[in-house]
Amino acid sequence: MESQNIDVLIKDFADNKAMALFLGAGCDLTKTYPEGERYEHLRDPKVIESNSLSWKNLLNELMQNACIDDNDINAIEKISSNSLKAAILKNKLGSSYIPVIQNWLYSHCNHRVLLDSYKYYKKYQESPSVENLKEVPFGTLFVLAEIILRQDSIKAVFTQNYNNYLTEAINILLENDKKEGNNSYGLRQKLEPIDVYDGWQDNPFNKDCLLIYHVHGYIPPQSELLPKKESNHIVLSDEEFYQLSKDIFSWQNVAQLNYLSHYTCIMLGLSLEDMTSLRLLRYANIEKSSERVYWIRGNDGENTTLRLLTEYYESQHVCVVNDADGYVNLYHKLLTEIKNKTPKK
Asked: What confidence tens digit (pLDDT) does each residue in 13-54 have?
């Protein structure tokens, strides 16, 4: 499939359309890791795949910690629904459910890991090219952070991820830009990203705050206290998805629906197979203003499945942006255009 609709998206960036980002697990995936003894065992491609931040590997981690025998593991693996697998494992793990996920998330990526990764990203900043970006651990995450900092028309971020990686990446870029005496981010030099989730305490914030809404819940790093159990609601198992779908007036549904209906929205790292997202898109379509909803894709060559999905989603007024050369090329192209655009007076 040829590249499509990229120029349309770039024009909306250039026109400073009021935007919201909708992020999924794909934004955190990486095929490389920072140098150092701790990551040497991850150099093997097979090991990298088994350690990547995918929901399949998260479920495997839950299984390994659930104290179940091989027969039960084999039986669970035969279940096709990931949310049902998660429900069974949640029941088995009990109070260990959230701590296991917390440990899995932050052993793969944390502040120190991202600081090491930034060394690679700095090389990409100094010599921007697709090949240099491919060498950056968590490169997609850093590119998104820089797009947010350079595109001040991005007003909100909605993420289905439970971690604070995006907040950390934004802060690392800001801190290093200040340390080096630059002023790369103009109006957003004082930006303060804030993670918003169930149980979040409403503190006063100013115009420099960027709210990152964790619509599927939030799990902080081990250095912070876990929110109270009743407030620490994540959406992974089937009953959690059902509850979120049933509560149509929840802050997650209302906030997402507002932005989907009235802002230019960009969906990245999402498969759009989640029923919650599809339902909200359908509702938003009824109330939709003239602003577009984009679904970002990166796909090499012809792909019949992608073609059929594109036809369907565009019939639902979702503008599919695909780069035939893959995600890395697309993200590099978007960031380059944003950096080079003429500031609006």
From this structure: 999 999 999 999 888 887 777 777 777 766 666 667 777 888
Q: In what order do the strands lie in the sheet with 209-214?
A: 192-196, 209-214, 154-159, 19-23, 264-268, 293-298, 318-323
Q: Are residues 156 and 214 in the same domain?
A: yes
Encoded tokens for 48: 């990298």
Closest by CA to 257, choosing from 286, 230, 280, 225, is 280
* Predicted confidence (pLDDT) per residue in 280-290, tens digit: 888 887 666 66
Using DSSP, how many helices (H) and how many strands (E) does the chain show? 15, 7
CB-CB contact of 117 with 135 (8 Å): no
What residue type is assigned to position 135 of the chain? E
Same structural domain for residues 23 and 75?
no
Between CA 240 and CA 233 the distance in angstroms is 8
**In whole angstroms, what is the distance from residue 290 CA to residue 77 CA?**
44
Regarding whether 145 and 242 lie in a shared domain, the answer is yes
Single-letter amino acid, residue 173: L
Whether the CB-CB separation of 159 and 267 falls below 8 Å is answered with no
Query: What pTM was estimated for this model as a whole?
Result: 0.92
